[in-house]
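Question: does this match?
>
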Amino acid sequence: MSVALVQHASGLEPEDNRRLLGELTPGDVALVVLPEAFARDFGPPGSDVSGYAEPVDGPFGREVARVAGDRSTTVVAGMFELSADRDRPYNTLVVRGAATADYRKVHLYDSFGYRESDRLTAGPVEAVTVPLAGFTLGLMTCYDLRFPEQARALVDAGADVLVVPAAWVAGERKVEHWRTLVRARAIENTAYVVAVGQPGPRYSGHSMVVDPLGDVLVEAGEESAVLRATLDPSVLVEARRTNPSLLNRRR
């Protein structure tokens, strides 16, 4: 399965970000992944983003679907979705194209001095997976990466590719944490990980694809970039034969 990782910053104007979907989405790959909060950036820390929340079939979701259809691909991108609490929307991933799903971020970023839960509502604790091109995608968002039990729940639900859009805030040790955690989730689950972040300087960049034995297939720096990689099912099969750690579990 061919994938494209679009490491590009979203801005504060939703209309501009919708336009970028068409400009940045390639049409010669099976899966295109854009970052968390691509419909509209978070803004200054602690900002009220409720005024930018939409239903998943609102302007942003419809544009993701349109672009995916026009390019004959599947697109994953982040947005703020209306919830029952109108002041605290969901942080949601929409998947549109040959596959369709919605994932509401479970673990809110109440860490490193931030309080995402003050402005957003946590999604239900469930494993959201979707089949695509012979693989099964498992959806996570940014801070979810720090919770290995969520990745394992996705793999137990059949995922063999973990897709992780992010807006990984820059700072001391943050790139090292990101790279270590992305590789760890791949190695411990013998799964591909497709992790796409927003670029610097505010965020950490370093979008990457890691294979089921922990090899980095492609990695960006801090600047805007579009990366490509190919996920090979035979590599997945061989990795799980060589390291059958999922089968060897005793808990």
User: Anything to note?
Assistant: Residues 2-242 form a domain with the Nitrilase/N-carbamoyl-D-aminoacid amidohydrolase fold (CATH 3.60.110.10). The first helix runs from residue 14 to 24. The two ends are 32 Å apart (CA to CA). The chain has a mean pLDDT of 97.
